[in-house]
Amino acid sequence: MEKYIYTAYDSAGSKHQGELSAVSLESAAHKLKGEGLIPVKIDTFDAGTTKMRALLQFRRTPSLADIEFLTSQLSLLLRSGIKIDRALKTIQKGGMNTKLRTILDDVYEDIRRGVPLSLCLEKNADLFDPVYVSIVRIGEATGRLADVFEYLAANLSFRQKVLAKTRQAMIYPSIILLVCFFSIVFILNFIIPRFATIFTGMKTVPFYTNLLLVFSDVFTRYQFLIFPLLICLAIFLIRSRKKYGYKRLVDLILIKVPILRQLCYSLENLRFVSALAILLKSGVLLTEALDHAVKSVGNVHVRKKLLMLQKEVKEGNRLSDAIARTAFLPDTFTGLIEIGEQTGNLSGVFSEMEERLRASYENRVTSLITLVEPVLIILMGLIVGSVVVAMLLSMVTISDINF
Question: Regarding the domain delimited by 2-56, which CATH topology (the fold level of the hierarchy) does it fall under?
Fold first, then answer.
């Protein structure tokens, strides 16, 4: 089979572009017509041309909102009795992320060849995490794909809600930081150089004045090097995010800084409990569910601690006792887990814990953001105010004014 690039229109007049596999040009056209599309252009796939097109065309990485929308649509279509391959094609007809559409096209082709959906999603681990893939695999085994996609959509919707709330709340502090930054740049470039002419020829200059003048001189001389270096540093840090050493260092800082430590543990508690709730609800055995739930924890150091918990449960110890020894979850939840073990309703207990931890995490995020705003305002005032005060004191020194 060969790959072809096509341009086609549907009955509503919407334009569709993508790739498909077929034995010939005629077969490709027949496939498109079978999907309700009218092909206007079909070309043989050229890897070099496609790469060049990808370089020239900006392709945004699918966001959490894109994955959540895809998951909820799959749940709705599967509940309506539509098969998974047809559901994927139906979703592709709507407006969606270009990169995600290309991925879904590959998934569709693999499914038509008999590859399980979970294996298709596993090939795109940067978009579909191990917990997502594992739950889909369980849905395939139990024939409850519609249900598991509904659970996943609810979980992703909450994550998207928290992320959107955090981003929205950080707009004001970000503006404050930008104003502070540009104010300092303006002062160092235009105010202090003119101010420095007053001290030309003076034998004695106050320490704070000399420090201000030297800093301004260095900044104005090398600012065209400083800004590119800062941009390169930012790019380096962004690209290093997935490296184990860098992630280990950042994770260590997160669990050592007091305020960040509370927020980090709240988030990891929520990830762990949420994964267990959805996995146990899907019918996964506790030992297997623990394996996937531990992998869902993002912090390397916290995950290492949970590996001991997983080992204890595999050795036959009770989950409530193992969690109590690790002190990972709040003490109030240990009794709930014990009740769940006795009644055989661990999935219900973890679902209840998930709701409580969601509310707790949202409150912590809101409190932290509320605290950040005044702190940044004070910081801006201190930085800009210190420069202004140093300038005023310098003028007072020159004029020999005594207060």
Answer: Ubiquitin-like (UB roll) (3.10.20)
